[in-house]
Amino acid sequence: MRSLRRVPPLRGALSALAGVLFVLLTATGCGTPTRLDAVPVASEAKASVVGMPEVRYWGDDEVSDFQRDALESVRRERDLLQQAGHRGPLPPADFLAISGGGEDGAFGAGLLVGWSAAGTRPRFKGVTGISTGALIAPFAFLGPAYDDKLKEVYTTITNKDILEQRGFLAALNNDAMADTAPLRKLVQRIFDQPMLDAIAAEHEKGRILLIGTTNLDARRPVIWNVTKIAASRHPLALELVQTLLVASAAIPGAFPPVMISVEADGKRFEEMHVDGGATAQVFVYPPGLNLKAEAQRAGIVRQRRLYVIRNARLDPDWAQVDRQTLSIANRAIASLIQTQGVGDLYRIYIAAQRDGIDFNLAYIPESFKTPLREPFDPVYMKDLFKIGYDLAANGYPWAKTPPGYAAPQVEPPIPPTTAGATRAASAKRATAGAGS
User: Fold this and answer.
1) What local confidence, expressed as pLDDT, does residue 145 receive?
2) In 10 A of CB 350, how many CB atoms?
């Protein structure tokens, strides 16, 4: 989900409160979108995409399906290495998680391209993305060969490439303040069948690409296995991935939700999916998965490194707030998003510590001062892309902990001989004190 903290509101949304009240009292339901029934709670666990079962996981629930596919990916990777004559332990595995952030995704795009220029960018075993991070993730997954395309997307698009304004009455009676038909066209242009085929080829090598959405009916995070969708070769696989990329960036209320057809218990339903940032700003794998323990149980020994790109600033963003309803609400939502993003980083860091994964974090520096004059401002995005590029090209100083985290200071253990002497000295001092 994009941050709202520096963004002017969409034009037409800030009508006078008296006018809003009048419309609320007099508006009819004419033109309101309809939908099929949502999946009943009792059938949620059984619901699957029509024609493509087992291509997604709940992000907050039982992890057996996710664990199964992760182990299968390691098996494919190991088989490929053995065919190439590799013997011994598996090579280190590098993972990348890309957060939401709207136009701030230009930072992550620039960082990836600059990382390629530095010659140190890994070939990631797994990549995850949410919202704008979901749009970046396929390029990051496929590697430096797609850098030019990634740069084009984040340095040439404008507001008109993302949305079309709706009038206030239309927004009130419809499902969002804007229409994202331009975004869908953009996604269809940048994510085509050859790109899907390239992702399918990487699936066979044991690599994984995941993107996150939010099931608004269930109010739960959903993780989609894009590599598995691509490898299915289903005739609707391309359309599904394109739909998911739009869904992951569908800011509730601002952008229309995306309806996905599913089946459960022999019946058809529709799920309403919106921006993955409604449930998390960034993710790696379900926190219920104890990766270290499961890897040990499966006999998998390897080093793991995690790189997290947070497309946002993490320092406090002071601003005087006008004493008006929309101004206050806008500021509060922005605060919630920023706080949620920091909380996600702490959750990921704790899981990485538990699972023995080397943690690395990048985020927009305080030194970036270009003002954002409108959503997806091209000047802002070009400057931000350059900041990310320059930092990475010169060797990015990855943070090893989330912001504000202080690692506990652990006293070194006292050797046995020293411990005995210390206890004897303490006893002697106590005896002397008692006799004084």
Assistant:
1) 97
2) 14
